Amino acid sequence: GESCTDDEEEEAFEEDEAIVDQNLRLCLVGRCLTDSIVHFPSLRNTMADLWHPIRGICISDLGDRRILFQFFHEVDIQRVLVGTPWFFNNHLLLLHRIQPGENPSEVPLVFTEFWIQVHDLLPGLVSETMARQFGDFLGKFLEYDLSDRLSNSYSFMRIRVKLNVTCPLKRRKKVMVGSDRIFYARFQYEKLSLFCFICGKLGHGESFCPIRTRLAPENIVFGRDLSIRAVVRKRTVLPSRWLREVGGDDRNWSGSHGDSRP
Fold first, then answer.
1. Which one in 10, 15, 98, 196 has a CA-CA gap of 20 to 30 Å to 21?
2. First and final CA of the chain: distance in angstroms?
3. Residue ranges of the DUF4283 domain (predicted)?
């Protein structure tokens, strides 16, 4: 009869490393920054709808709260990376692009990219050198948005920063000009979702802050508030002059002037 050998002692299946790396070349691994249970089927549908990649997407559950997003074209994966941060149910989605040789189940998922506004600057301080200094103070400097320079906003700048989500969000930075002038630059985070007013970290609200278990309620200090959330400037949308009210009164329609036949 056939001899039974221990399955672990048999010769291992060999898989070409290049093939594995090629399959993961267009992959992101991610997790939601929350202690709550995340409903995977909902996340899968929501993110696929939100991103609607041209070539489609495969989204699979790796277990241990990790999700693998497989894209099929560089254009699609780039659009998602440029658009970070992304959220599911107000939970920040931490994403990492798999590099050759990396194991999606083991890479640390603690970084995210944010656009951060630096406010209350002295006009002469808006420069790339300063942007880099602020960026590296906040996390890791990535880029500096020059488009706002055109709108005469010389007292603030926008920088793209890679943040470590295990660190508290920074509120301000003391800046010295020469030996006698001191001012404080204020930071505001764009697309900022859930963060804690007590410890300043992303991913939980103040009611679930671990500090609550260590301090008496009267000793708890709310060190942050919503002022570190950047307010998105809403564009005012003027109604098109070609639009008419449905079943409504057309007297206000600009197209009716000059061609008012009885």
1. 10
2. 101
3. 22-106
User: Same domain for 117 and 90?
Assistant: no
- My answer on whether 174 and 122 are in the same domain is yes
d(CA 44, CA 57): 10
Sign of CA dihedral 5, 6, 7, 9: negative
Tell whether pTM > 0.70.
yes
What CATH number is associated with residue 23?
3.30.70.330
Give me the residue label for tokens 């990219």: 113
Cis amide linkage into residue 100, ω under 30° from 0: no
- Would you list the DSSP string of 16-39? -HHHHHHHHTTEEEEEES-SSPP-
Token pair of 116 as six digits: 């951060």
Report CA torsion sign: 28, 34, 35, 41.
negative
Residue 239 belongs to some domain of the structure: no
Token representation of residue 3: 């001899």
How many domains does one find in the chain?
A: 2
CA distance 121 to 149: 13
Q: Residue 14 burial (CB < 10 Å; 0-12/13-18/19+)?
A: exposed
Q: Compute the distance between CA of residue 262 and CA of residue 251 in angstroms, rounded to an integer.
A: 13
**What is the extent of the structural domain holding 144?**
111-228
Closest CA to 108 of 22, 29, 27: 29
Quick one: what percent of the chain has pLDDT higher than 90? 58
**64-108, pLDDT tens digit by residue?**
999 999 999 999 999 999 999 999 999 999 999 999 989 999 999
Neighbours of 121 (CB within 10 A): 20
* pLDDT tens column, 5-25: 566 666 766 666 666 666 788
Residues 119 and 88 reside in one and the same domain: no
